[in-house]
Every structure is written in C-alpha cells, then in structure tokens.
Amino acid sequence: MKHYSIAPNKDATAWFVKVEDIGLEEQYSKKDAAIEAGEKMASENKPSTLSILNKYHEVDEEKTFE
Description:
It is built from one helix and five strands, in the order E-E-E-H-E-E.
C-alpha cells in the first residue's frame, strides 16, 4: 500500500504532495490544490492512504483509498 502525504513548507506558503516521504514531490501554492492532487494520485494508485498535515506537521486528516 502506498502512502501519500500533504505537508506545508516551514512558513505554510507552499504545500507539498509526497509519495512515501521519499520521492515524487510536487509543490502547490494553495492547500486545496495540493489536497485535490493528492486525492487524485491516491485514488489512481489504490490501495493507498493519504495524510494531510497541518503547519505543525501533525496529521489533521487521513484517508484510505481501497
């Protein structure tokens, strides 16, 4: 199962979509755009999970795509 995450940079001016926290990183200027892209990637690569982190890098929401 692949794990995707969405996290902000240190001052929350950009949002990153990462795969497995190791590679395939994409940057977005808005959180909503990053969430939309992350959900699309995760749903296209089932089974997978998506974690959405807040500015403190704590998990705000987690979704599973089966």
